[in-house]
Structure prediction request, 364 residues.
Amino acid sequence: MSKIAEIETILIDIPFDDFYDGPRNKPRGWVQRDTLLVKVTTDDGIIGWGESFAYACRTASRAAVMDMFRPRLIGQSFDDMAALSREMQRQLHIQGRYGITIFAWSGIEMALWDVKAKREGVSLARLLGGRNRDSVPAYASLVRYGESLPVARVTETAMARGFSDVKLHEIAYDCIAAAREAGGSQLRLTTDVNCNWSLDQAHDLLPRMKALDLYWVEEPIFPPEDFRTLAALERENGVALATGENACTAFQFREIIPAVTFVQPSVTKIGGILEFMAVADATLQAGKVLMPHCPYSGPGWWASLQLAAALPHVGMLEHLFIAPKCWVGADMPLPKDGIVAIPDEPGLGFTPDPRALRDFSVQD
Ligand SMILES: [Mg+2]
Prediction:
C-alpha cells in the first residue's frame, strides 16, 4: 500500500467584488479571500488536494500543516483513515482539539481521501458509499454590507439569478428588514450574526426575526459554545437557530445537535471527511437538519459537494455570493437557479485553476 511521500501547501489570495457598485456610507471590510491548499503526493505518484480553513489565519494554518503534521506523516500509510485521524488527534491534543490544529488536519485528511478515491477511479461520494444524487440546492450567502441599501439591492440581484434562499451576515434590524422588504414573502431569508449580539440584544431581536419570518438565525450570541443558552433562546422565541461552524470534531457536536434545529459542520474546520460524516449521521439520528458551512471555492467546496452527493439529508450548501477575479478551482461548479450540479470525477474532482496559481498565489 502506498505511503505519504510529500505534503506541500499553496496560499491563494483572490480579490473579489460584492455585486454592489452604488453609493456606500461604509467602506468595504472584506475584499480578498484566502485559501490554503494542501497538496499530498504519495510514493506511487498520486496527488490529492485538500483545504484547511484560512480566513484571517492562513500562515498559522500553513505552519500547523508543515510543522506539526508533516513530520509525523511523511512515510506513513493511510489505509485506515479512522485510525490515522484518531492517532493524529491523540498525538496533537496538547495543541488543542479545536482551531488551527484541527483546521490543518482537515486539509490533510481531505487530500488523503482525494487520493484514495482517485486510486479507485471513483468520485469521493461513490467511495464513501454511493452517489445518491446528482445535484444539491445552494443558498446565496451575502457578505456583510452594514447598511440597508446594498443589502436590498444585492438581495434582489441574488433572486434575479435564481436563488430562492438568501443568507445575510447582517446584525442590525434595519438591514435584515431591508432584505425582507426587497425579497418579499417568496424569499426564504436567514441571517448570520457571527456571535455579535449580547444576550439582551438576542432577547430583543429574536422575536423581531420571527416577525420577519426568518428561516434561521445563525450564531446569535457569544460564546458560540453556550449551547444551553442557544437551546433556551430557540425554545422561547420560536425562531430556528443554526450553529456548528465554530466547532471541531464530532465530539463537540454531541452538545450542539440537541441544542439547535440546523447543524453546520464545516469540512475544512471540523477534522475533515470522517468527522463530518460522523456529525451527519448523528444529526440524522436526532432528526435535525444538516446545513454545512462551506463558503469555499477550493477543495472544501468540492468536498462539500461530494458529501452532499453521498448524504441525501444534507440540506442546502452555502455559496458565498461574490464575484472574484477567478475561482480557486478550475470549472467551479456554480449554482444555476439555486441548484449545483455535483461533479462525478475521480476523487474530489478538484484541480486548481492555473490562473489562480499564476496570478494569486502568495508567499507569506
Ligand atoms: Mg456562519
Observations:
- The mean pLDDT is 97.
- The two ends are 35 Å apart (CA to CA).
- DSSP finds twelve helices and 14 strands in the chain.
- Residues 192, 218-219, 245, 293 surround magnesium ion (CB under 6 Å).
